[in-house]
Structures are given as C-alpha cells and as structure tokens.
Amino acid sequence: MFPQLVLKPKKERAFVHRHPWIFSGAVASVPELENGEIVEVISHEGKLLGYGFYSPYSQIICRVFEFDPKDKIIDGVYWKGKISRALEIRKNLIDFSRTDCYRLLHAEGDFFPGIIADAYGKSLVIQLLIKGTERLVEELKLAFMELGFEHIYLKTKQSSQILENINEELTWLTDPVDLPVVVQENGVRLKVDFEKGQKTGFFLDQRVNRQLAGKLSEGKNVLNTFCYTGGFSVYALQGGAKVVHSVDSSKDAIAMCEENVALNGFDSRHESFVADCFDFLKAVEPYYYDLIILDPPAFAKSARKVENATRGYKELNMLGIKRVKPGGLILTFSCSQNIDKLLFQKIVFGAAADVGRNVRILQHLGQPLDHPVNIFHPEGEYLKGLLLYVE
Questions:
Q1: How high is the pLDDT of residue 298?
Q2: What pLDDT, on a 0 to 100 scale, did the predictor assign at position 303?
C-alpha cells in the first residue's frame, strides 16, 4: 500500500520499546521518495512493523505514528480517530465550563508526531512541524471541523511550503475570526492573538502552575519576570496579591499584559515594566518581593546550547534567590527540552550554593494533563519547574 522503509538487522528493537523516532543509521534501504510520504516500516526479515512519516533531510528519517499495523487503513477516518480520542481525553480531564483553551494534540504525546493543535474556544491553532503532517492539511482541516471547530489558523515555520494548491499567503484554513479572541482559563479571562503572539498565542502549558501561583499570592508582593501577556500576573492578582509587578522586554507583550489585567478588573494593584529581566532583577530592591516567578523562554533550543543555557539559568536563579524576602517563595521553570529535570535541579542547587541562602524544594512542577508524555518518548516531558522556599 505504501513504499517500504527497511531496517537493518537487529534494528527493530526500538519498535519493541515503541519509540517513535527512527534514525537514519538504522535504515538498510528506502526507495526514492518525496519528503513527508507515509512509509511502511519493515524489519530486515520482511515483517511489517508500523507506519511513519518519511523525512529524508533529517537525522530522524522516520517518525512513527502507528505501531499496530494489522488491519489498519490509513485514511481520513484514521486521522479523525486519532484526533477524536485525544479530544475525549481532554473532555474527561478539563472543566470546559471554566476553561475553553487547552492543547488538543501534543505531537508524540498523542501518538501523532509532527503536529501541535491548541484550542481557543471554537478556534483552533495548528502547528505542522514536519512535511508529513503538512501533506495531510486538508484531511486534518475536515476532521477538526467535523469535531466542532469553526475557525482554524495555521501557524508553522513551514507554512509557505505547504501543498502547492494552497496560497502561500494563506494562514487561515477557514473563515477568520477577529483577533484577539477572549478565552477563559480556570475562570480567568485572557486575550489571545494567534497571529502576533508567541507559539500558538499563549503558553497553555503553564495553566496548573498559574493556578498554584494564584493560591500562593494572597497578601504578597509578587514579581512576574518574562511575563509575556501576563497570565501569572492575573492569577496572582485574582489570588489577592498586594502588588504585582510584570516585566518583559517586549512592548507588545506588556501592552497585552496590561489589557489582560484590565479585562479582569485588577488595574490598581499592578504595574508593568518594559525591561530586560536580568537587568531588572539586578537593580531591584532586595527583599521587596515575597514571591518571584522566573519563567524564561527556552535557553537551550538545541543540544549544542546546553552549556550556555546552564549559565543563563544559573544566573537567573541566583538573582531570584538574592532578591526574594527571607521566607519568600520562587516559582522557577525551564521549558528547554534539552535541560532535563535532574540537570535543572542541579543548576538551581548551584545557584543556591553560590548565593549562600538555605533553599528548600517544596514541590516539583511540570506540564498539565493536556500535554501528555508518551511513556515510550520521554523527550516529550519538556516543562519542568520547582517551587522553592528561601530562608
């Protein structure tokens, strides 16, 4: 049915462990194929092992989306089935009456490599990360619409390369919706702009951690660094913070942050600053803040950048530990996939040791339930955080 990618002898072990990535060194032969074609993965002995997306220009030459190939028909119904199962999981985990923005598809975490899909009410923002999912764009659009999504926005680095019959300038796959949209998360109202915002417009992976920040904020002076559009800030204000300061180097992000604060009626206890967060922390009065949130962008977007990222995370956490009040709290995060939980904890340990203050880990933090981790693909556990108590 599909072209065959044949593995070298004894290279089918990854299939026993169901890891979805096949590296080029494991492949014995593959016919001349176009980027993104679906292939049958065949053992050296000729057994059909599964199906995947072919990526000839990547070290990961195939991303497997199906490990149980028997009697499988790979068509529009098949893709809709994957999406439907993912949606059912979210319906069972999220209170849609209070939260209408969530991750619908989390790539390998939902056994669908190469696609991220974030829902904002009846709107859906999709990122197609490989050519294989780009080639499915029309089937995906139909499946999403059949599941009730009315507006679909395509936001992907490869969007200009998508199927030839789609205009290069097209980013809406359906009728557009006026932006920004207003969504709610745990009852908090937030404006999201798909076109201008980072990622899909908002960082949905911090939903549970924002809720925790709100619970910790009552009566406290709170600093939210790298605040983006103010999610942590609004939760802190809703939680009864005495004052919240939001800091980001982007004027546009700060403008949206102020709009979100106003949208929820909390203007009087909030102040924002357009500034480099490192410089702001260096200049701020020590021991003013009871709670400091350190949620920077990914410092290590590739394995080559881990060393530099380690220094950046250490400096940032040293500044936070120096500035927070005695008995204060720090929520510190890394969203760098190349920085694992153990390394991140070691970085924070180094920062605490160099500052010379006693620090306790009160809680390990991570991504929410709608960002599942495929147990066979631990690389999907990218967000890690710590709640720290500083003496």
A1: 83
A2: 64
pLDDT tens, 200-212?
999 999 999 999 9
DSSP H or E stretch at residue 127:
strand 123-128
**Whole-number Å distance between alpha carbons of 328 and 390:** 6
Whether the bond into 180 is cis, omega within 30 of 0 = yes
Distance (Å, whole) CA 383 – CA 385: 7
CA distances from 58 to 42, 53, 291, 382 (A): 19, 11, 43, 21
User: How far, in Å, CA of 372 to CA of 137, rounded?
Assistant: 23
Q: Is 253 exposed, middle or buried (0-12, 13-18, 19+ CB in 10 A)?
A: buried
Whether 350 shows a pLDDT value over 70: the answer reads: yes
Report the distance separating Cα 312 and Cα 370, nearest Å. 29
Domains with residue ranges and CATH for the chain: 4-66 (2.30.130.10), 76-181 (3.30.750.80), 203-390 (3.40.50.150)
Cβ neighbors of 126 (< 8 A, separation 6 or more) are 105, 115, 116, 117, 118, 140, 144, 152, 153, 154, 155, 156
Give the tokens for residue 153: 């926005």
Least confident of 48-57, 155-164, 248-257, 375-384: 155-164
